[in-house]
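thread from #wetlab-drylab

HS: before we spend reagent money on co-crystallization trials with 3-acetylpyridine adenine dinucleotide, can we at least see a predicted complex? here's what I'd submit
DV: go for it
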Amino acid sequence: MAETATKTDFDAVVVGAGFAGMYMLRRLRDELGVSAKVFEAGDDVGGTWYWNRYPGARCDSESYMYCFSFDKDLLQEWNWSGKYPEQPEILRYLSHVADRFDLRRDIQFNTRVTSAHFRESDNRWEIETDQGDKVTAQYLITGIGCLSAGQVPDIKGLDTFKGDWYHTGSWPHEGVDFTGKRVGVIGTGSSGVQSIPVIAQQAEHLTVFQRTPQFTIPARHGNVDKEFLDDIKSRYGEVWDKARKSAGGFPIDMIDRSALSVSDEERLAIYEAAWEQGGFHFLFASFSDIATDRRANDTAAEFIRGKIREIVKDPATADKLVPTDHPFSSKRALIDTNYFDTYNRDNVELVDIRHAPIQEITPTGIRTEDGDYDLDVIVFATGFDAMTGTFFKMDIRGKGGLPLKEKWAEGPKTYLGLSTHGFPNLFMITGPGSPSVLSNMPVSIEQHVEFISDFIEYMRAHELDVAEADADAEEVWVNHVNEIANMTLYPLANSWYLGANIPGKPRVFMPYPGGVGPYREKCDEVAANDYEGFLLDNEAQHFAKVPHEAVKMQMP
Ligand code: N01
């Protein structure tokens, strides 16, 4: 039985046992020596990779960088089999990490945190779960992921459908056999683009319902090259260092070259080479202004459009697949294996629901404005209520009983994506306002976990009970995030980065687009300046009485 099963008061409670929660537990318990408990909704570790078991699920980050770097022996000993890590292998890896560091004994599985209220009388969080647990903690740390609240669109008639339906983000553990089935997939984001080619191979017939055509780059997936991996392992320290200082958390050499500075022939040759290499290299290692200059972006977009027309044999289908309404990479850049080729199969049909929207789901399938499509199975690859959805599933209340949902009613407001004013001692691993989803997640997760654990260590050393984001510092940060976002092409797409996929969600750019390197520098500077921008104290009511400048001046 877990050692913490009967204990109810902890130094820290962590929500979630994916990459973030697991490393947080390791740091808190084994390095800081504080008491910590993790609550996890699934019945094992894994987070995103526990839930997203759809066919073809794998990560777009190359495997040698999609792992923890905190333990050198672990890095050297683990061997990935594929260029990109597939979902079952990532889950095996995380299970191995849990065994290796004996993490499970402090994780309570099958348990969802339902509420967390800050108790001002003694600066503790009161936390409740759907299993009836009532515990308290000085620190509440969320490792809930950015894409964990699945969104099934509210389409009339779903409850009348006689077949089976699934969302990619909560896939049955036993898998789904599509043999002999007529399958409909709604959605062509990362999950759709990965699952469609695999489902097409098994299903009798596949109908893809596409609202927005997407740019996608070939992954060039394959077995991991042993020589390549041996070389990486021989200089892993330097490789991680480069990733930590980079824009996206990858050790890719950024090219300082405008797409508009070279001749048409040279540009084409560079795109061809990057297309052959595949993956994020196309975006990061071809030209430096694709994400920021519309004319540069157009050259990349036009190149990909040409590839789609080359690959897809039926011109009418190719026309439907060619994206025209947003710049390349203003929605999450997609990486695929045989996605466009799949539309050359006889058993695959593409339905454009931008022009003929879905009207309803009937007992036998999907009805669009153009007609009826008979289906045995519907797969919703329709994404997530990203970045804030999972926070709002919990009733989180800060000082004065203020619900987080209310504070963030017009969009999330944080200081560094780590903390939000009015919610003392609440730390968010990869929260909104941090690079998170715009980066290779383990790099960002490790940086946040280390920042938080160093901060807790500092507080303990200085006998400080409470840390809270300063309202002014938060405002400055939120404005900074928006300012940078407005220098990019991101605002030109209706993406989940902006909450555009959820009806009624405020349109606010949520992640920090300034790059993991500059972001890390900012966090390091904050820490070096005695956690500048945070109010620190050992009296709960003190903040209300003393202006923040005065509080800051008291800091050692
Ligand atoms: O979700 P999405 P996802 N009617 O939101 C469509 C990460 N991830 O699960 O574009 C009809 O991207 C929607 O259409 P539109 C990654 O960060 C990573 O695929 O909004 N269609 C879109 O086509 C990724 O970005 C990996 O017009 C509707 C699709 O559904 C994020 O998770 C793998 C609709 C949703 O695309 C989310 O990806 C998987 C409606 N009502 C996921 N609502 C890897 O690393 C939505 N759509 C590989």
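DV: Residues 150 and 384 are 4 Å apart (CA to CA).
HS: ok that's useful, forwarding to the group
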